[in-house]
Amino acid sequence: MKSNIDYSLYLCTDRGLMSCKTIEESVEQSIAGGATVVQLREKDCCTREFYELAKRVQQITKPRHVPLIINDRIDIALAVAAEGIHIGQSDIPATVARKIVGPDMIIGVSASNYSEAAKAVQDGADYLGVGAMFATGTKTDAIITPLDDLKRIKQDFDIPVVVIGGINERTIPQFAGMGIEGYAVVSAIVAQPDIKKAAEKLRGLIQSL
Amino acid sequence: MKSNIDYSLYLCTDRGLMSCKTIEESVEQSIAGGATVVQLREKDCCTREFYELAKRVQQITKPRHVPLIINDRIDIALAVAAEGIHIGQSDIPATVARKIVGPDMIIGVSASNYSEAAKAVQDGADYLGVGAMFATGTKTDAIITPLDDLKRIKQDFDIPVVVIGGINERTIPQFAGMGIEGYAVVSAIVAQPDIKKAAEKLRGLIQSL
Fold first, then answer.
1. Which of A124, A199, A209, B102 has its CA 20 to 30 A from that of B73?
2. How many CB atoms lie within 10 A of CB B155?
3. Cα angle: B147, vertex B204, B176; to 5 degrees
4. How high is the ipTM of this complex?
5. Residues B38 and B63: beta-carbon distance below 8 Å
6. What is the value of pTM for the model shown?
């Protein structure tokens, strides 16, 4: 089942950017517009709050068959039996994560360059989050991934690649012909006045590449 | 094995109070002075840092047969195979935690009153952290547990009780004759100039009750 995931429009939540809507509303509208994966990322709330939120979001994703991926917090992912976790370079190492979550949970790993990607593949990642591809307001300290590294990653590894960081209507066409499996989007969806429409537009654009 | 834990001098770490020493040094000296359990509590560091710290602390606790208990973060506890987790009212519920960690890991639950304690016992907690017993500088927003609740908890439930919150040389004698299994201490050990000596003194005091 893990190998059939459609990563194409990969929504990352960001509480700070969702001024008018709840996370649940944003997720629901994003999926209605075509988001294929939802990653829940919460850095500043307590564990119980994150757990309760994950359960509520799961009530939206599950019936729509959209995989829910929890950022960093393996405990939350296990507690709600999420489809996956996403771990960065400052989280629990992927090899340790795999021992905890077992073989069936999706493990995504962030890589900002070729060598991090190579390590992640070796550690058994199921997909790579590669970026930041562009400077972004969401993560101001992000390291920019050289486009050449992305090309070499695609060339050398047989693993789905989701690009992240400054991904939007304007930047997506630059990846045409590269065989990128997914586009991770934060503000280009959730910070838009009409979330469903924004997601639809991006989904259409991605499918046209 | 879980039932044979000596909770009597239960050290909680607090990075903010350990100005001169590392957490590892504080733990080592506390155990040398008689601490019987170590709880690692980190609220403000990233997951990888917490994981690496837990591994380093475990290298001190493990050979000394002192159980290491991780506060809140079940992912960290699983990642390092700690002896236990301690969960508060704002963490993952104890029944969910039990499903994740299995039957063998110690689960401690914080209770600030009788009804929280009753719930924790029902949820399968292995011990209770009851308090805050006194106003404390470590946790300024702590709810004070009525002494009568503590007495009723001891009377009604057959589960080890660790009192926490303002526990020090001056307050410990007030629990004499109540059958309290453990005394959780933060600043009364780790904020003292001679940690080993402070632990020795408290251990002696507890044993004399």
1. A124
2. 9
3. 25
4. 0.87
5. no
6. 0.91
Nearest to B51 among A49, A75, A92 (CB): A92
The answer to whether the Cβ–Cβ distance between B79 and A89 falls below 8 Å is: no
pLDDT digits (tens, 9 = 90+) for A151-187: 999 999 999 999 999 999 999 999 999 999 999 999 8
Could you confirm whether A151 is annotated as catalytic? no
Helices (H), chain A: 23-32, 47-61, 74-80, 94-101, 114-122, 147-156, 187-190, 195-208
**Interchain contact, A93 vs B49, CB within 8 Å:** no
Which residues have a Cβ under 8 Å from the Cβ of A65 and sit 6 or more positions away? none
Q: How many CB atoms neighbour CB A18 within 10 A? A: 18
Degrees (nearest 5) of the Cα angle A88, A93, A97?
A: 105
Distance CA B105, CA B27 (A): 21
| Annotation marks residue A41 as catalytic | yes
How far B118 CA sits from the closest chain A CA (Å)? 19
- Cα separation, B71 vs B60, in Å, equals 18
Contact B11, B35 (CB under 8 A): yes
Residue A200: DSSP 8-state? H
* Residue B85 three-state SS: strand
CA B112 and chain centroid, separation = 14
**How many Å from the N-terminal Cα to the C-terminal Cα in chain B?**
25
B109: left (phi over 0), alpha (psi -120 to 50) or beta: beta
Q: Quick check: B176 and B23 in contact, CB under 8 A? A: no
Alpha carbon separation from B170 to A23, A102, A148, B14, B37 (Å, rounded): 48, 49, 65, 21, 21
Cβ neighbours of B158 (radius 10 Å): 6
What DSSP letter does each residue of B90-101 carry, written as one string?
TSS-HHHHHHHH
DSSP annotation of A75 reads H
Q: What is the DSSP letter of A169?
A: T
Element of type H or E holding B152? helix B147-156
Please, is B69 exposed, middle or buried when counting C-beta atoms within 10 Å of its C-beta (0-12, 13-18, 19+)?
buried
pLDDT digits (tens, 9 = 90+) for B138-179: 667 778 999 999 999 999 999 999 999 999 999 999 999 999
Whether the bond into A176 is cis, omega within 30 of 0? no
